[in-house]
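My hope is that you will study the record closing this message with an eye to the fold:
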Amino acid sequence: MIMPDEPEKIRITLDDLEHSVADSPAPVSAPQPALSGAPRQWGTITGSGPATPTTAATKAGSFFLKGWVYLSLAGIVGAFLAWALCEPWFDEHGGRWGNLLIFPLLITFMSMGFAAAESIVERSMQKAVIRGLLALGLGLVLGFIFYFIANVIYSIGIGLLIQKVGKISPGNPALWFVRAIAWIAFGICGGLVYGIVGKSGKKCAYGILGGMLGAGVGGLIFDPVSLLTGGAEASRAIGMTIFGASTGLAIGLVESALKDRWLYVSGGPLAGKQFILYKAATQIGSLQTSDIYLFKDTTIQPLHASIELRGIHAVIIAIGPTFVGGQPVSQQALRSGDLIQIGRYSFQYQEKHRA
């Protein structure tokens, strides 16, 4: 009974509890990539919320996709080709065109190799040809300029040594250091062309630093190799290929050590490759001229996405279906460790810690 002066109360009996049925919660489906031709319903996720980095199951990938590996091979091929073309017309006492051209061609062919190697391993033949031809022109012009500079440095060094010790023999370590200092000019030229073709000032700086280190090492061991092999053709062939290998190796290692923001390919045909983000805007798509060329996937658009560097932030701009941490995005600031999915490719964004 409800008394007139009391508020109405709700009473639940045991019989009510026994016959009650709870509503089942609605199922929540995981986000799925948009199908081709279906309307795209993407969210916009900004970098202001709390970050939950996604750790990708990374793959080691091919050994030949590592930068220091393919740059070393490019240096070996370029140096050996220059030696092979010039050696038949090379004279120990000078005066033949082989003597004049061997070092400019060494620089030119190494520069072409460094410029085209990355595009070759990425299967972008069109970009490899464009970069190779550009490096050919730059290498020929700069090759003669830096060959002249190296000769001036070497002549000055030899002159100073003669003043101090008189006659110089190939077994004198002082001669090795003079050659190493002179050959650094060749490394500077190769690294400079590598950066210019890559259209990046930072890539130029890394290329020059790596080129200096590698060429210095190559110049330092050239005379010891000549002594061990007995001089003449064999010593030049071995010494120059070692020079090419050390220069490419050093450029690749310096790039890897000094990079600050990059994408590591953790899934897809290029698994194991890393793309250093040098440019203000890095284009990703199925065009061979893209900065990151994604092939063998018909779902990827010619320009599918781009990554823009905005101060300390890297922001991905999606044009085609793009997922970060499993969520579809149109624009998002990336955090180190974020997993990006584009078609059959997955990338892990990484950056060095900033104070």
User: Anything to note?
Assistant: The chain has a mean pLDDT of 83. The chain has seven helices and eleven strands. The longest helix spans residues 125-165.
